[in-house]
Amino acid sequence: MLVALAGGVGAARLLAGLVRVVDPAEVTAVVNTADDMVLHGLHISPDLDTVTYTLAGLDNKETGWGLAGETWAVMEWLEALGGEHWFRLGDRDLATHLYRTQRLSEGATLTEVTAELAARLGVDVRLLPMSDDPVRTRLTLAEPSPVGPDVSFQHYFVRLRHSVPVASLHFEGADRAQPAPGVLEAIETADLVICCPSNPLVSIGPLLAVPGVRQALQARRSDVVAVSPIVAGHALKGPADRLLRELGHDSSVAGVARLYADWVGTLVIDEADAALADDVARAGVRCVVAPTVMGTPERAATLSKVVLDAGG
Amino acid sequence: MLVALAGGVGAARLLAGLVRVVDPAEVTAVVNTADDMVLHGLHISPDLDTVTYTLAGLDNKETGWGLAGETWAVMEWLEALGGEHWFRLGDRDLATHLYRTQRLSEGATLTEVTAELAARLGVDVRLLPMSDDPVRTRLTLAEPSPVGPDVSFQHYFVRLRHSVPVASLHFEGADRAQPAPGVLEAIETADLVICCPSNPLVSIGPLLAVPGVRQALQARRSDVVAVSPIVAGHALKGPADRLLRELGHDSSVAGVARLYADWVGTLVIDEADAALADDVARAGVRCVVAPTVMGTPERAATLSKVVLDAGG
Question: ipTM, 2 decimals?
């Protein structure tokens, strides 16, 4: 049995490769929900949806988000009505949010709704939200913003295009949250825990902030293999590099190794960073060098094999 | 200045005729909101939307509900996901509900949101919800139902296709509701109050149940003109005839007159019911006989003139 700690796109790509080399039913993905938000009254879970859509083969490979063959009738009318349209919601994607919101309003948990959607879309990987309780990433901007000093993750990520400096971040509600049912058990009993190449601070960070998760991972440290989301100093997608620097870390595989050292036994870094392998080792983390850029599902599958081998 | 008390389709048709013969800016429509519901997390106001869409010329004349040229991408996917799809929500219609729900979540009142939507869609009639507070029609069914004895209006109307006997109804929240800002003032200062041919029990009934509204109407009784929604014993649309009978009233213009007698001075009845004019008069209500079936906007305009004349 395998556990994957997952954010959005990077995690979804690795998981899509992983299910080419192992039985999907043997994989449990624990997915970040701190990017979730309520907009237009709808409960939106961007990372869960990205992972679900990608594993269902429905992801839009051109945009990197949303569904393939999506239509935009609702959003066009919402814009005509003068509504908020900065967060683009396609028609089919909206159906997911309507479904989730209705089920939650009926008393279903996010874990249950996630499983229902996965089953409907033919996803055999077991998808768990990190928590059924609300945890929300809040970022304090380094410079004054029209909406105040504190913004939600989606406000920062989508509306401000993650182009503004961040002074600090915290995970609202994390101290009161419980891991979703099955999360700790999955980590405790897994043969291998894979930390996907997701943003260390705003995708993996929230998982670690849910009480009990970091401790469970620390207890399995030698069986935890992470893939660096930083390649040659840069994030392949998103603001991980900026955020690492702005919040006092190194935007490098060594910086990732130091950040993860207490709970990650092995870090897989890209060949472009081979010269930094010793720095990773100096952080106390075993280092494996391999091609990590997942341009195609085949490359993601190859990377998955490297990760499985790294875990012994 | 004119005030119209409005439910959905019948009221929308009369209002569309009325604005052909008077300046729309001189008309205030007070619209039933007891059919409103939250579904998929979205605040849906069926009567407000029907009136707004119709006055904007966007109504679907074939179905009698929703928007013309509507598409169904969201609903089709929601059905594929196994979601609740008994209440058909078109893509453009959904944009209205997203807009309303978001604005309400930001603290706007239903009155404000209604005005914003009307302005965006070019509707010059002043549209007021009967109340900014939640009032919900609940129906107790005469026979056991799988969802229990009590159902919401939309459950009865759409899901059960209003084909089950009703034992009683009440308007949840009405006792604690306040009329929306401007409602009482509009009634108090109107030259004429028009009660549209809407369902007396579940469209006009809720308006009367909002504290202060019935009293305000009673004080203007001689200036209140109603158009009977019952023609030759039948409702032109919907369950008004059934409901009147099931709840102990007559499904006839005389029954309507008796129901409205304390606050309606004049009832306009269809030529088909000319023989019952004396029964209307015996209820203490002045009777005007005219063609009331609004097959075309022109006929609705003609009926509007009759109503205006009836009001002196």
Answer: 0.90
Query: What is the maximum alpha-carbon separation in chain B?
Result: 57
d(CA A286, CA A161): 35
Which three-class secondary structure string do you get for chain A? Answer: CEEEEECCHHHHHHHHHHCCCCCHHHEEEEECCCCCEEECCEEECHHHHHHHHHHCCCECCCCCCCECCCCCHHHHHHHHCCCCCCCCCCHHHHHHHHHHHHHHHCCCCHHHHHHHHHHHCCCCCEEEECECCCCEEEEEECCCCCCCCEEEHHHHHHHCCCCCCEEEEEEECHHHCCECCCHHHHHHHCCEEEECCCCHHHHHHHHHHCCCHHHHHHHCHHHEEEECCEECCEECCCCHHHHHHHCCCCCCHHHHHHHHCCCCCEEEEEHHHHHHHHHHHHCCCEEEEECCCCCCHHHHHHHHHHHHHHCC
What b/e sequence results for B68-107 when a residue is b if at least 16 CB atoms lie within 10 Å of its CB, and e otherwise?
eebbbbbbebbeebebebebebbbbbbbbbbbbbbbbeee
From residue A62, alpha-carbon distances to A157, A225, A247, A301, B265 in Å are 19, 29, 31, 20, 66
Q: How many CB pairs under 8 A join A and B?
A: 114
**Chain B residues lying within 8 Å of A121, measured CB to CB:** 81
Q: Degrees (nearest 5) of the Cα angle B71, B18, B295?
A: 60
The closest CB to that of A91, out of B73, B84, B105, belongs to: B73
Q: Chain A: residue nearest B78 by CA?
A: A95
Q: Can you tell me which residue has the tokens 């966007």? A: B58
Q: Do A91 and B98 touch (CB under 8 A)?
A: no
Cβ separation B120–A42 shorter than 8 A? no
Q: What gap in Å lies between CA A55 and CA B101, rounded to an integer?
A: 31
C-alpha to C-alpha distance for A30 and B9, rounded to whole angstroms = 49
- Cβ density class B203-220: b for 16+ within 10 Å, e for less: bbbbbbbbeebeebbeeb
The Cα of A108 is separated from the nearest Cα of chain B by a number of Å equal to: 13
Contact check, Cβ <8 Å, A116/B82? yes
Arithmetic mean of pLDDT over chain B: 95
Model confidence at B236, pLDDT cuts 50, 70, 90, reads confident
B162 pLDDT tier (thresholds 50, 70, 90) = confident
What does pTM read for this prediction? Answer: 0.93
Bridge-partner residues for A131, per DSSP?
Answer: A179
Instruction: State mean pLDDT over A230-236.
Output: 94
Residue A94: its chain B contacts at CB < 8 A? 74, 77, 94
